[in-house]
Amino acid sequence: MSTHRYTTARVLSGLLAVGVAATMVAACTAPGTNGSSGAAEPAFKANELSGGDAPQSIPTYTRKVGENLDPIGGGEEAWTLEVGARSIEDSAVPSSLVFHDVRVGEHADFYRVVLEFKKDPSVEATTDQADAWDAELAWVDAPVTLGKGDAMESEGKAFLDVTVGRTVMASTPELEELYFAGAKSVKIGPLEVLVDGTVEDKTHVVISMDEQHPVQTGFLTRPARLVIDVKK
User: CB–CB of 20/36 below 8 Å?
Assistant: First the structure.
């Protein structure tokens, strides 16, 4: 009888050890980590902030298609202080967009600013795009609002003005549900994104900096996003 009890205890002890080991492995490969389970990696480091409805807890926020950990434009040769018009012709981008979210994140060598847009539900889907989806970037002496030209308060010393086309104002309850409802200022490191919002068919933000930094810009689709990487 004592031998049977001893054997049973050893079996139970072995099962407990296996259970603990399995739990540790599962924790190492949970979504949002770099485990071998194939789960998506985090979009940004743990100090990412969202101005809108994107999750604040980064371990639960996985990056979307195309948002990798490399600069949006490629290698070192893509960094530049020269800015201007940017555009993309892609049928995946809806013909009418609603400004939805602002996200900022920090990587090893650069900061990232993402402006995300949702499809305007009042416009029927079409593959015929009359114009390219465009954005205009410019260094300005001081940040001002797009409509009235009022001063936008900031302690920065350099200002990258960003205007995105093909967007609509939140003129209906349906559009208001999709429209950006976050803070008017989103900060990370020496950057501050000043959110002006949408005026007529343009969405406007200003990226305030401690000084002019080289940038890389690019568009992503599904959902529609403008990505601006700022070199440290």
Answer: no
How far is 144 from 204, CA to CA, in rounded Å?
Answer: 10
Question: Across the chain, how many H-helices and E-strands are there?
Answer: 2, 11
Query: What is the amino acid identity at position 111?
Result: Y
Tell me the C-alpha distance between 80 and 137, whole Å.
Answer: 12
**Minimal CA–CA distance to 101: which of 88, 123, 119, 116?**
116
pLDDT tens-place string over residues 80-101: 999 999 999 998 899 999 999 9
The identity of residue 112, as a single letter, is R
The mean pLDDT of the chain is 78
Q: Which residues contact 100 (CB under 8 A, 6 or more apart)?
A: 52, 53, 116, 117, 118, 178, 179, 180, 223
Does this model's pTM top 0.70? My answer is yes
**Structural contact between residues 214 and 100, judged by C-beta atoms closer than 8 angstroms:** no
Q: What pLDDT, on the 0 to 100 scale, is given for residue 57? A: 27
